[in-house]
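Journal club side-thread
Mid-discussion, someone asked how the predicted structure for our own chain would compare to the paper's figures. Pasting it here so we can look after the session.
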Amino acid sequence: MDPKHRIVILGAGYTGMMAAHGIARRTRNADVTLVNPTDVFNERLRQHQAAVGQQLAVHRIPDLVAPAGVTFVQGRAARIDAANHSVVLADGNDLTYDYLVYAIGSATPRSEHAFAIDDPQFAQALRDNAEGVLTVCGAGLTGIEAAAEAAEAYPKMRVILLSRGEPGSMMGSKARTYLMNTLDRLGVEIRTGVTVTRIHPHAVELADGERIPTDITLCTTGVVHARLAAEAGIAVDDAGRVTVDSALRSVSHPEVFAIGDAAAIRQAYGTIHGTCQSAIPAGAHTAESITRILRGKDPRPFRFGYIHQPVSLGRKDAVIQFTNPDDTPSRWYLKGRAAIAYKEAVSSSPLKFYRSKSPIPSALTKRTGGRHNPTLSKGSSR
């Protein structure tokens, strides 16, 4: 009997979990090993809930992947030896691979005097300052959701949202108006057209020199990418994301697949931005691609079109902007109770995928974009 192929997946976020489940469920000719620093699955779609201290269900990664036959290794990858097809862990152990799936997500840059959304101390800081001032830097979806959750959970807290642009600027006018009205109802103070230049222990400094007094600062601006791939000589773009071809393989190391925030995935309309709705399809597609390769077939190109921009506005409200494949807003949106139900369905769906006894076809997790997203020519997605 031929030895099994060794598949190592770095990162057990939404995309790494999807790839691990998909490969293991599709073939018995592979040993699939999933590596992650912690053994608890991080539901990033609910980070704004955890950030204000809401008690969420705990999902252990070994329990989720063991039924599919995936081996879980709790550890942190310290180095990739691309020449020898090996991943060296921080504890000195190493894992050899025939195919590597690089699914290490991005993170918000740390600031000395500010919290990040995933900081476990943030919830306690909110409780300690329930009648104080929270300043949220950045009005992307993470900043909006965090500001709304905090304002609802702590009605005596003054919540300030700072942004260069208008919150919800990617939405259509009706959805954006609803979002702004809801933030106003929750008492969130919005200041646009400002740039944060420095964060002090109890103040946020703007480009014009103004200092905004604050008790707590939450930073949700920008992302950084792990340097493991670049340090291993794997081709990356200027942001540190692995440059991939149309099948999501590294353009410099075809035995390496990169997915999720870790990859610069190019489509006809541009490069995909980090989001769960693109990460899960990329993981499912990579599972299909590796399985095809193991069976002597060529992988197919990855095609993805956006569907929506779901935004929670506390536990009692939400707004969903439906989009065109290129992520521009369509005319349709949901608000209120319908939006709450839709957002919950979206947030809970990944765990249903991981618990499935059958592999999830990538076609069921996405739309391709149709004629608006023709397949790019083979080669680099740069």
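Post-session note: DSSP finds nine helices and 22 strands in the chain.
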